[in-house]
């Protein structure tokens, strides 16, 4: 018996970074995975002349507030500064500022270079960092914002309207995948409902997928599929927010982690699959297609006990006579009530003895919760 709660489900993965880890998590749980990278993210490919110019601009004047948005962006920036011989100057310069961090990864990167944040939102959302700043008097303050793959020019403009002088540092830019064919294939799979869910670990991946869907003429079908049949699973609220402009509902876990996103799919996919889910003798019994899962673990049944289970599930909790169960057995099964008893015994061996109850002189029933 294997613990495969995603058995029978086909899931699209759009990640470029850490894709192997995510695919392994899904496949270990029984899912069939379609990998179609939406982005090509290589933080080492940065526009060094532009970043050097931005770094010198930061160093030219005092910084009142520094906003760190991603760990990988900070590491890339400070790594470049080290190559230029400017790392000590940069960390000392930023160390004199009030430092705000978007989330734990940027906090970790800051501390690695001897910097400490004064505040970070519990939500890990950049919008909450902006809300924190908007609630203050920013007149005359110089704010430096480290960008996270997407331009934050609109956020910078909003802060400037509040009186701040804002400089953004673009460490790297997120670009589309070098080979778009896998994404085109996934878009067709989504439009045709050939996948049950698609995962997203970065907001730019959603923009890239929608752009690709537009170029193939499938954008409306993709939006419709996500609205009705295909789950859009995001790693966190920042990524999920990118779907709002398309009117696409999405799910994301409380903690923005890959494992948490996969765990959420273990619950959401079976519950939305239109299968049968019952509380039987204190266990969760789920039928999805021909797959039978008990407490998330797949149960292999031979044809006779599977036929008995199907008959007992027609009206869960209702007694089914031995004669009716005999009629439900596959053709070729020995035509006697002993065959029914053997099938029930095998079903109990697979599900647990308490899952199927004997009702004396009447037949059998599933021990469903009242």
From TrEMBL:
Residues 275-368 form the OmpR/PhoB-type domain. The keyword DNA-binding applies. Coiled coil: none annotated. InterPro entries: 4pyrrol_synth_uPrphyn_synth (IPR003754), OmpR/PhoB-type_DNA-bd (IPR001867), UROS/Hem4 (IPR039793). It holds the Pfam family Trans_reg_C. The keyword Disulfide bond does not apply. Keywords: DNA-binding. PANTHER family: BLR5956 PROTEIN. This is Uroporphyrinogen-III synthase.
